[in-house]
């Protein structure tokens, strides 16, 4: 994987093969950041990266100037790799080793962007539970967005707070937002 833009543009990051990850492809990641670039100033937002895996998305945010990034993953190897990589590039990434659902049930924080990249083979109810917990527990700031990456075989359009989806090859990004009153 490589960092597409920002201060670390072009840097390659090689994760250990033993990590249980499926990094977001460069094409999908570039498309996602093109969308986000139209709505956010990266140097003035906070990001929560759920099912962070290799930290691929968090490194991209950090390279673009985001200084408040929290990664959550239950795999110790993933958390260790993210921490080591963040330290080696001097990136402002905090890591939390936790089951994402337990974290969402207990944590109290507000953030601009939540990116969740759970295993593609999750049942649709588990994907929906992520959105449910994020909105029930008010994790997003008023103009914030939850983005869930999933396979094209999963349809989240009926989940509450769904806004739209963008398809990139075999990956889909579903966007969820606070309802406008």
Describe this structure in words.
With 181 residues, the protein is of the alpha/beta class. The longest helix is centred in the middle third of the chain and has 13 residues, at 76-88. 29% of the residues lie in helices and 27% in strands. It has one domain: 3-Layer(aba) Sandwich (Rossmann fold). Strand 2, helix 3 (76-88) and strand 3 form a beta-alpha-beta unit. It contains five helices and seven strands, in the order αβαβαβαβαβββ. The termini are far apart. The chain is globular and about 40 Å long. A seven-stranded mixed β-sheet has the order 3-2-1-4-5-7-6, with helices on both faces. It comes from Aestuariibaculum marinum.
Which properties best describe this structure?
single chain, 181 residues, alpha/beta, Rossmann fold, 7-stranded mixed sheet, 16S rRNA (guanine(966)-N(2))-methyltransferase activity, transferase, methyltransferase
Secondary-structure map with pairings?
Elements: H1 26-37, E1 46-50, H2 56-63, E2 68-73, H3 76-88, E3 93-97, H4 100-106, E4 111-116, H5 124-136, E5 140-151, E6 162-168, E7 171-177
Parallel strand pairs: 1-2, 1-4, 2-3, 4-5
Antiparallel strand pairs: 5-7, 6-7
Quickly give the CATH architecture: 3-Layer(aba) Sandwich
Structural class assignment:
alpha/beta
Examine the coordinates and then state which fold CATH places here, giving the name of the CATH topology. Rossmann fold
Approximately what portion of the residues adopt beta-strand conformation?
25-35%
Principal-axis shape: globular
Overall average pLDDT: 95
CATH class group: Alpha Beta
InterPro entries: DNA_methylase_N6_adenine_CS, RNA_MeTrfase_RsmD, SAM-dependent_MTases_sf
Protein name: 16S rRNA (Guanine(966)-N(2))-methyltransferase RsmD
Organism: Aestuariibaculum marinum
GO molecular function, one term: 16S rRNA (guanine(966)-N(2))-methyltransferase activity
């Amino acid at each position: 994987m490589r960092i597409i833009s920002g201060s670390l543009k072009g840097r390659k990051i090689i994760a250990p093969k033993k990590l249980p990850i499926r990094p977001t492809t460069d094409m999908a990641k570039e498309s996602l950041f093109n969308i986000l670039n139209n709505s956010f100033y990266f140097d003035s937002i906070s990001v929560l990266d759920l099912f962070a895996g290799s930290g691929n998305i968090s490194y991209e945010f950090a390279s673009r100037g985001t200084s408040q990034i929290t990664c959550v993953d239950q795999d110790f190897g993933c958390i260790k790799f993210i921490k080591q990589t963040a330290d080696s590039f001097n990136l402002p990434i905090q890591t939390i080793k936790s089951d994402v659902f337990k974290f969402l049930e207990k944590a109290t924080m507000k953030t601009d962007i939540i990116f969740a990249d759970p295993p593609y083979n999750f049942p649709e109810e588990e994907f929906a539970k992520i959105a449910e917990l994020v909105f029930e527990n008010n994790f997003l700031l008023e103009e914030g967005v939850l983005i869930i990456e999933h396979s094209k075989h999963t349809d989240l359009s009926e989940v509450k707070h769904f806004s739209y989806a963008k398809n990139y090859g075999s990956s889909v990004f579903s966007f969820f937002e606070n309802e406008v009153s």
